[in-house]
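INTERNAL TRANSFER SHEET
From: sequence group
To: structure group
Subject: AP-1 complex subunit gamma

Please process the attached sequence and return the structure record in the designated field. Keep the field labels unchanged so the import script can parse them.
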Amino acid sequence: MRMPAPIRLRELIRTIRTARTQAEEREMIQKECAAIRSSFREEDNTYRCRNVAKLLYMHMLGYPAHFGQLECLKLIASQKFTDKRIGYLGAMLLLDERQDVHLLMTNCIKNDLNHSTQYVQGLALCTLGCMGSSEMCRDLAGEVEKLLKTSNSYLRKKAALCAVHVIRKVPELMEMFLPATKNLLSEKNHGVLHTSVVLLTEMCERSPDMLSHFRKLVPQLVRILKNLIMSGYSPEHDVSGISDPFLQVRILRLLRILGKGDDDSSEAMNDILAQVATNTETSKNVGNAILYETVLTIMDIKSESGLRVLAINILGRFLLNNDKNIRYVALTSLLKTVQTDHNAVQRHRSTIVDCLKDLDVSIKRRAMELSFALVNGNNIRGMMKELLYFLDSCDPDFKADCASGIFLAAEKYAPSKRWHIDTIMRVLTTAGSYVRDDSVPNLIQLITNSVEMHAYTVQRLYKALLDDISQQPLVQVASWCIGEYGDLLVSGQCEEEEPIQVSEDEVLDVLEGLLVSNLSTPVTRGYSLTAIMKLSTRFSSLNRIKKVVSIYGSSIDVELQQRAVEYNALFKKYDHMRPALLERMPIMEKTATNGPSETVQTNGETDSTILDTKHLPSISQPASQANDLLDLLGGNDVVPIIQTTVPTKPASAGGELLDLLGDLSLTGGPTPTPASSVPMSQPPFLLDGLTSQPLFNDIAAVIPPMTAYNKNGLIIEFTFERSNPNPNIAVITIHATNSTEADMTEFVFQAAVPKTFQLQLLSPSSNVVPAFNQGSVTQVIRVLNPQKVRCYCEPRTHSASYRSRSSEISPFVLKHLQKSDECLSGAKLNIAKLKLRAASH
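Return from structure group:
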């Protein structure tokens, strides 16, 4: 019994559109799919084309249609054009190279490529160019190349696009299409020209050899582009008054690729680019697209400076366009070119700043990024004013990035330290909750280094605390500054603005309020408690401060409780050390990575160099205080420690700084003496032979140079002398030589002292010790001992301890990182350890 004729595609579409619910539509689709399956099983050739067409429509709606793949192949094998058209369309939609079924159509495509009808050939080319696998492309590349040489424009343009797909799948077949590609540019048909430019672009992007080969076609491409912009009205190619803008854009992209990095090609296209930029109408979006491609081409090739200025001016006009997309691409392009053409972009600064007020968030973000890129020393004040205004009114999503950008720009171009501090404080006041974590320590470092601004800064921050304590980074910086410079706040020494009258109790009330405020984070409370503790050496309200500190000794916040317990210990057990421990922080200098500048490490109360003794503070602490300080830092133990790893961070004051140089021998001999042979009851002092009398000019004669280290080919020698301008300064010079066959790299020598002394560590001559003793690395250490406290040291090895003698040289800790016996293979560094202590006369 023959089944009734299936409904037509148009009727199916009308029926599906009448469905009121998704379930009703699904039911209709399932019913029709069942009918189609039954028709396929009966091998009904009459309505196969109609059923596949309906199946493709269901596929477009998102329903499964994979069961129609073989039916598509049957339609492709049909001799009727209408069947082939639906079959090839179904193959492009339902098949891809991941399914082996598509290989069954290779022979059909090959036959159709050689068909006598151009439309059948076009169907085969479209299908191969859409979903052909690498195997199919290898098998059929020859037929595609033949069709590229045909005189039929309809087939040539389709063959060119198919060749692009073949090259993407099988790049090694690129040379096959080279002869035919050269002739495509002489075609007058715009469709062939367009596809040939696409093919040339693909070949140039994939092969540097093809790129250099096709550079000789630049004059021909320039002529084609010139004819397009100079030709009159052509209804066949006209789009909004512009002749074939699609072809113009494609040619401009190809010129950009050909002219990049090539002087001759860039010179050949400069004139035509200027003509396109000046003759293209900008009132329509079509013209703006051509101008945008022109700008990108000018910026990528080696164009003339005047042409680049013209391109940036075009982008500046784009910023005034009402279309948001055009404004966005203009900002993005200017952001890419601002580094190379900074002055030209600066001319449009006011327009760019106006884009900060745009309602579109993407435009605002690009405008913000470009505004920061335009900041320099000349416009820093005006640009910061606009950006601070933007920070006040922008969405929370922008505040973090905007604040970070202001911080970086202010640090780089600040006209004065006061302006810098005011700007950072303005940011913290406006967007304190959105700034990054490193903003607090960076501002603290800035304030510390601005000595003349301490009184002004602490007064401004105190006022800010009275107004608002919700911005936690601002509160943290203010707490730190009040703890450091609270005495300047109370004394009213501010000269930059009218000083305010503040009492000690008022300052303590503010800090105590921060401790109990619900707005304060645990970190902020820690800052506040430390500030109160520091004020114990600056204010007279000692009993009140002790009471506050003792209260938080039982806090449920572990961090706050630990701080309070340690501060209580300072009040009780180490009260004689409290003034030294709570003294003002020295200037925080950034470590120089290279250059001739000296690295100064100051552990005393002043930031001046140790050679300028007239600025040194008078130190009244007893000599035993140095012992207590070293005991507090863990300096009493004499257990040998073996260190096998190398810390990559700079040495800091503390126990780890005092546990260095385990293999350093100061005896001058090649073999160290066991510690058991040295009487422990009366330890000798460092640097035997130094008397307590000020015969400093003869120190070199008293102590000859000594070999401090001799192992694995590395020899380190010490020489000693006394500074002539200041006899309290001892100068130690190290000389490091290398007798191995390879250079020793990353050579570092560091030193540190207790707070009663001062140390200056000059920059080394190099960080590479040359091989075969062909050179040496030298470094100078200056140590100031104003109290002439005697010291002894405990250099440690892996098996024993040793001691040496000294008189008035200051105690110091030498840290030496040298290459071990594995240094030639780039393995690990070995850390030797040394401890030194001060002792009273």
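Handover comment: The first strand starts at residue 238 and ends at 239. The radius of gyration is 41 Å.
Transfer complete.
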